Amino acid sequence: MPTFHYPIVAFAFVSSLLNLAIIFGILKYRRSNPYLRGSYFAIVIFHSVTDVLLACEFTILMRARKYRYLDFVLYEGSTLWEVLPRLTNGLHYYLKAVLYIGHVLLSLNRFTSAFYPLSYETFWRSKLMISARFIAWVLPLFCILPVVLNFKFKMWFHMGDDNETVRLESDEVSTQ
Q1: Which of 37, 72, 125, 174 is least crowded, fewest Cβ atoms below 10 Å from its Cβ?
Q2: Which of 48-52, 108-112, 148-152, 156-160 has the lowest mean pLDDT?
Q3: Cβ atoms 150, 167 nearer than 8 A
Q4: pTM of the model
């Protein structure tokens, strides 16, 4: 792995630890602090969980795979070599889409709290929060699964020119 990737991995690790601390802090103190029970903090938990999952996915399935840290399970001819390209592409774009939806939810939440402070709490009632988070986790599946499960689209790994990297490739049609 190139040297400049090590600080990036360290940053992702520290960021994930801080996100986990935020999640556990909110969950631990929400009974005693009514502010932590609000919709904003529910979205923060949603966003932090997604952020941690994306950091883990990218570090393991993208970076570790590319720089051959997974050679003990990922090698040419193995089942993972055939299955993982679709899983990697699907999971990566799925988590990114969920994270983007989380950004929109967070922005809408802050917008309504600033411009509609009197109706903010009733607007972001628990039923809406459950629906919004459910939609945020499910909606991207309708975009990602048709690509990942369509075997007319080609996704594959191949060894890089220098044999030091495992490259993830896709055909032109599946990346549009």
Answers
A1: 72
A2: 156-160
A3: no
A4: 0.86
Q: Does 19 score more than 70 pLDDT?
A: yes
Apex CA 97: angle with CA 95 and CA 103, to 5°? 105
Per residue, the 3-state secondary structure of 141-167, as one string, reads HHHHHHHHCCCCCCEEEEECCCCCCEE
If phi > 0 it is left, if psi is from -120 to 50 it is alpha, else beta; for residue 72 that is: alpha
**Helical H segments across the chain, by residue range:** 5-29, 39-57, 65-66, 79-115, 120-123, 126-148
**Looking at residue 154, what is its pLDDT?**
85
**Which one, of 146, 165, 168, lies nearest residue 157 by Cα?**
168
Query: CA nearest 153: which of 71, 89, 92?
Result: 89
Give all domains of the chain, ordered by start, each with its CATH number.
5-170 (1.20.1070.10)
- Per-residue pLDDT at 95: 96
